[in-house]
Amino acid sequence: MKFFNGVRDGLPIGLGYFAVSFSFGIAGSKLLSWPLVTFISMTNLTSAGQFAGLQIMADAAGTFIEMAIATFFINLRYSLMAISLSQKVAPSFGTFKRLLLATGITDEIYALAVSRTEPVTARYFAGLMVLPYIGWSSGTLCGAVCGEILPPVVTNALGVALYGMFVAIVVPQMKAHRPTLIAVLIAIACSFAFKYVPALSGVTVGFAIIICALVASLIAAALFPVKDEEDGDGSGEVLRESGKEGEA
Amino acid sequence: MIATQDYCIFLLVMAGVTYLLRAVPFVLLKGKIKSRFWRSFLAYVPYTVLAAMTVPAIFFATENKLSGACALVTAVVASLLGLGLVGVAVVACLTVLGVDGILLLL
């Protein structure tokens, strides 16, 4: 598989990323100058993780430890995808190339790469990364610059695009898989508790997200273990589902 | 606005943790995770994280809670009707624009 085949296959992902990261740029522009917001996207290439990171930065009580733990749990799924992808790559895809290209393991790029029948070469994977990376970075840049110019009514409206995207990832899975529905409802109930129960209101935003996700996922894993066939090649069909829709 | 020095450390932590999560297993691990419990746990994590991040935060993301709540409802409906990522995001944006616009005129 050639480099340019990868570039071509990455085009739709790149376009989707531009739109989504535009709203990240707007959210970031409320806290940081546009070069600093753009640099977050250029070094992270992850939507939910960056978004949570921004919330922790915005929180006056946010700590570096909180940032590390929140990033760890929110992005832990990439480790699963990396394990899965490592079984699909060509033998020529060596350690050095893996270190270089590991940043490209996002939900969509991963999903596209493992859906190929042939082994994934480093060249193809590198090609696949190009447009999504450009789309993600330039979308953030445009959003951050516009966020400083546009009136609040417009930026508020654009700012919910990211939440809309999260809904678009979670809801189809809730519809298709009842245990995910229950897990999500537990997480939401827990999240409301952190917002409105006075005894819990001292917990910072980042830790609240981590605790909600841990509690809900542990309960769901204990009650409804994912079937082996759903788990295919070690990554999980449940995860693959999210990959189809388009989250960075 | 946060201090530039704090920003740099936050960025380093974020980018470093994210990179290591991707690179370390990619380079080292070849086998499948054996424990069904932990595989299941990891399969649920993305959804519970996104849910906890969206609700109730979306209510506080806009000018007033009503427009955020309306956006959540229309986004869920749009998603149930089969709209994709971009479509659902557009519906949510238009809802906020519409509701905030009407409230501004009232």
Descriptive notes:
The complex is a heterodimer of chains A (248) and B (106). The model of chain A is unreliable at 229-248 (pLDDT under 50). Chain A is globular. Helices cover 75% and strands 0% of the residues of chain A. Chain A has helices spanning 3-29, 34-44, 47-58, 64-74, 77-88, 95-101, 107-114, 122-149, 152-159, 161-176, 178-196, 205-223, 237-245. In chain A, helix 1 packs parallel to helix 8 and helix 7 (107-114) packs across helix 13 (237-245). Chain A has 248 residues and is mostly helical. Chain A has one domain (3-245). The longest helix of chain A is centred in the middle third of the chain and has 28 residues, at 122-149. With 106 residues, chain B is mainly α. Chain B has a domain at 32-105. Chain B contains four helices and no strands. In chain B, helix 3 (65-80) runs antiparallel to helix 4 (85-105). The longest helix of chain B has 25 residues, at 4-28. Chain B is flat and about 60 Å long. The mean pLDDT of chain B is 88. Classes of the chains: A mainly alpha (248), B mainly alpha (106). Chains A and B meet through helix 1, helix 2, helix 3, helix 4 and helix 5 of A and helix 1, helix 2, helix 3 and helix 4 of B.
Give a short overview.
Chain A is built from 13 helices and no strands. Chain A has 248 residues and is mainly α.
Largest interface: A-B, 108 and 78 residues
Distance between the termini of chain B: 33 Å
- Roughly how much helix do the residues of chain B carry, as a percent range? over 70%
- pLDDT average of chain B, as an integer? 88
- Beta percentage of chain B is under 5%
Q: Structural class of the helix and strand makeup of chain B?
A: mainly alpha
Oligomer, anyone?
Answer: heterodimer
Poorly predicted residue ranges of chain A: 229-248
Radius of gyration of chain A, rounded?
19 Å
Biggest sheet architecture of chain B: none
The secondary-structure element order of chain A is HHHHHHHHHHHHH
Number of helices of chain A: 13
For the record, the count of structural domains of chain A works out to 1
Q: How far is it from the N-terminal to the C-terminal residue of chain A, by CA?
A: 23 Å
**Overall 3D form of chain A:** globular
Residue windows where pLDDT falls under 50 for at least 5 positions of chain B: none
